[in-house]
Amino acid sequence: MQLDLSALDNKNEIFNLKPFSQALELLRNRSKIWQQSYITAKPYPHLAIDNLFEPELLERLLAEFPQPEHRDWLVWNSTHESKTTSRGIDKLPIFTQMFCLWLNSREVIKAIEPIVGIDNLVGDPMFHGAGLHEMYRDGWLEMHADYTKHSSLPLMRRVNLLIYLNQDWDTSWGGELTLQDYENSNHRVSYAPYFNRTIIFPTTTKTFHGVPTPLTCPLERSRKLLSIYYWTPIAMPRLLKGGTSIRWATQQKRNSNKMLFRARLKRLAKRNFN
Fold this sequence. Notes:
Blueprint: H1 11-14, H2 18-29, H3 31-40, E1 47-50, H4 55-63, E2 74-77, E3 81-85, H5 94-103, H6 106-116, E4 131-135, E5 140-144, E6 155-164, E7 177-180, E8 188-191, E9 197-202, E10 208-211, E11 223-233, H7 238-241, H8 249-273
Antiparallel strand pairs: 1-9, 2-3, 3-4, 3-5, 4-11, 5-10, 6-9, 6-11, 7-8, 7-10
């Protein structure tokens, strides 16, 4: 992951923690109310929050949103989807990276855990699949259930958090996130991708969601969002973990002395035997 440290020139602005603290306090203070909304939502548990963040915080993300000609993103164009995504948070503007790292922090995760009812959530240091997403005109995403297995770490994906960055979005353009019942495709709910709308929902084999209708937005517009995923550790058998435990220098010296002592005993025993 590379950081563009030139963005640190304006230190007062980038380290203004007040908007972060305000969002965190909202999560904490309304956790019981939002937990109830999350649990009772249909077609499966989820939560849509408008204006969780101070507008200027997300406006900063939007102002620094990488342009196509200045980025190396993944392009997903198949019979199932048409969209582009960053490679985690690698090479994103430093403020965007800091925002993602903050969302991945323990204090934010602890505020989200009571809402979703999971106690042992962890962030993903690799931001696998997360980061910035963008969808252009005719873009879409087939209804699907997300993968739950991490590409390289012993983690299981449990929660999706999506933050939309689309100012002055016209609902006639489409782009709604649709959540669908696993057994009844007619039982669904949709949310327009309005600016400063945050949606939280679980990641399971049955939580189908997508953007099933192609976008009709003007060519100069696009559907933008930031995604963060939360995970739980997968217990691994001791033999598969690999590595070694901590080795203290004093303990190492004692072990060496024991080995020398045993070697001497063996030599003495051999002489006596002979």
